[in-house]
Each structure stands twice: as structure tokens, then as C-alpha cells.
């Protein structure tokens, strides 16, 4: 049987073939994650070493001021999460700012990929690079301040949740900044806030500054890790901190997805 001819349009032209179906979220997310991971492996590993050495150096400096107790736990926990802030917040803000300025978002806009897959894939790839540096910083800090390492397995939850919260914030800053330079500035300011509000003991901060600390997404990951250094941690409080961190991660990644949609149509 002969195949039916394509129906001509009024002007005599042949009707265009239908577009391919839009990719599903999970396969598209995995593809973007692998692409970003391979791209960032060469360019970001040296910066990860810088972030790790920076956090270890801060702990060495604070060793001359803080002897032990809850303050030491705050310093080690804050320095460990600072590695996550350097990569997931600072570098991701710069990446999306550069992507928007160079027109790279137009490439993603032409692909049948959900916007959430682009944001989540890039955020997951950048956050993945923070795991080794965060672990090294936590181990070195525990040895430096003579803290127990029994419950460092909490990093299995702290790293992805803090990374997701900070990566979502970094992506949103990079996508909403009208200029690439402003995206870089916002990323640097965000990392500085994570340094000052996360590493310094909360007990020594003025009340207005402590309110700003409560707003910072990484604070709850720092609190969860700091509580795990206790001899007998209150796991309900630790889980509550991680739950807040997870909720902030959902909000920040949702905001980053909205920012991507907004920037892609302009």
C-alpha cells in the first residue's frame, strides 16, 4: 500500500514535521549533571583546593583565639561548610552570570530540556565537588581542636542539603543579576556572609547580626554539624536543623528555576 502524502499547507508547502517530545525531568537532569561534571572537573578542581586551604587556614588562625567547647565546634563546622559556600554559591553565581552575559542560556533554551533540569543539574555538579574538601576540612579541624570524629557521618546529609540550598541561591543570584560583574560581586558577598556568620561563634555576635545569621541558608547545616561533635548529640535537634536546611534548599532551587525561566525568555 502506498504511503499517504503529507498534507500540503494552503500555499502549497509541505506541513512541517512535528517536534520531538520534551525530555523527561530525570533523564534530562542526569544528562545535564554529567555534562556539567565533565566540564567543571578540569576548571574547578584547582579552585576546590583553594577553598579547602582557605578553610583550613581560617581554623589555624582561630586556634589562637578559641580553645575549645562550643566555640571550637562552631569554628570547625563553619569552616567545613564554607567550602560548600565557596563552590556552590560563589562559583555557581559566577557561572550563571557568565552564561547569561555570553548568551549561553539561548543554547539551553533551544533544547527540549525542562528548566528545572538545567538548574538542578548544574547545582548538583558544583555541589558534588565540595564533598572531598568539606570532609578534609572537618577531619583536620577535629584533630586541630581535639573534637570527636565519631559522628562525622552527619556530613552525608549536611553536604548535599547545604550544597543544594547554597547552589540554588548562587544560581538565582547569577541569573537575576543584570550584569556579569554584579553576579560575581553577589557571589563574593554571599561567600563572605557564610564566612563571617558561619565561622564566628554565634555567642559573640550582636543581636542584629544573629538575626542575619538565621536567614543564611548554610546556618542550619553548620548548626547540625556543630551539634554532632557533642559526646551525646541531641539527634532530634540535629534532624530539625537538617529539615530546615532541606526546606530552604527546596525554596532556593525553586527560585533559581524561576530565575532561569525569566532570564531565558529575555
From TrEMBL:
Classification via Pfam families: ABC2_membrane_3 (PF12698)
Membrane topology qualifier: Multi-pass membrane protein
Cellular compartments annotated: Membrane
Transmembrane segments: 42-62, 74-96, 117-145, 151-175, 182-202, 235-260
Residue span(s) of domain ABC-2 type transporter transmembrane: 73-257
Predominant subcellular localization, coarse grouping: membrane
Keyword Membrane assigned: yes
Keyword check for Cell inner membrane: no
Keyword annotations from UniProtKB, A to Z: Membrane, Transmembrane, Transmembrane helix
Protein name: ABC transporter permease
Amino acid at each position: 500500500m502506498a504511503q499517504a502524502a503529507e498534507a500540503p499547507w494552503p500555499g502549497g508547502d509541505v506541513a512541517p514535521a512535528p517536534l520531538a517530545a520534551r525530555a523527561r525531568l530525570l533523564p534530562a537532569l542526569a544528562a545535564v549533571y554529567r555534562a556539567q561534571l565533565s566540564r567543571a572537573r578540569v576548571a574547578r578542581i584547582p579552585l576546590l583546593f583553594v577553598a579547602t586551604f582557605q578553610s583550613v587556614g581560617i581554623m589555624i588562625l582561630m586556634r589562637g583565639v578559641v580553645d575549645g567547647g562550643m566555640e571550637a565546634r562552631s569554628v570547625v563546622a563553619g569552616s567545613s561548610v564554607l567550602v560548600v559556600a565557596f563552590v556552590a554559591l560563589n562559583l555557581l553565581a559566577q557561572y550563571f552570570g557568565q552564561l547569561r552575559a555570553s548568551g549561553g542560556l539561548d543554547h539551553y533554551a533551544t533544547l527540549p530540556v525542562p528548566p528545572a533540569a538545567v538548574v538542578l543539574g548544574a547545582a548538583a555538579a558544583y555541589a558534588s565537588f565540595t564533598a572531598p574538601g568539606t570532609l578534609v576540612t572537618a577531619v583536620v579541624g577535629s584533630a586541630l581542636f581535639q573534637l570527636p570524629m565519631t559522628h562525622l557521618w552527619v556530613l552525608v546529609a549536611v553536604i548535599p542539603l547545604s550544597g543544594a540550598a547554597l547552589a540554588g541561591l548562587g544560581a538565582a543570584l547569577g541569573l537575576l543579576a543584570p550584569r556579569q560583574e554584579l553576579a560575581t560581586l553577589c557571589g563574593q558577598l554571599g561567600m563572605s556572609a557564610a564566612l563571617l556568620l558561619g565561622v564566628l561563634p554565634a555567642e559573640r555576635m550582636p543581636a542584629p547580626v544573629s538575626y542575619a545569621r538565621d536567614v543564611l541558608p548554610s546556618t542550619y547545616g553548620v548548626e547540625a554539624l556543630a551539634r554532632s561533635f557533642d559526646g551525646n548529640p541531641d539527634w532530634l535537634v540535629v534532624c530539625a536543623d537538617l529539615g530546615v536546611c532541606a526546606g530552604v534548599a527546596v525554596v532556593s532551587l525553586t527560585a533559581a528555576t524561576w530565575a532561569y525561566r525569566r532570564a531565558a525568555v529575555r
